[in-house]
Amino acid sequence: MLFSEDNYKFMFAALQEAELALQEDEVPVGAVVVNKGKIIGRGRNQVELLKDPTAHAEIIALSAAGNYLRDWRLYECDIYVTLEPCIMCTGALLSSRINNLYFATYDPKYGASVSIYNLAEDGKYNHKINSFSGIYSNESAQLLKNFFGSIRKT
Fold it and tell me: Which of 49, 54, 116, 136 counts the most CB atoms within 10 A of its CB?
């Protein structure tokens, strides 16, 4: 699939958030929520910093977007994430009514959008999310590989 220049621009912004997470010794995952061509929510993993198991990049970005719009319904919004969302995050995406999910790389251990489950598109919920993958996949995967490789060495 061909992606637009904007798709690359927004995924790059998510990748920058992942790099910030890496600098903070967090699993390097970043996310941005986009509404009408504008980033309205940013997030990066902050599980260790906040001591909060729900402080995933997607959850933080959704919360910021909801605050910006003053609504939990994000009907006209898309999210860009550097790693395929887990079950918790996919549930939050469904609950928030996100329109499109763009993720960089698959998560074969926890992925709930395509890899293990297809919660976003399976039609069992009152909302369906269009999912797309592959933008900056190698860059995202390399960040994760470097992070987990450095943990295994210590």
Answer: 136
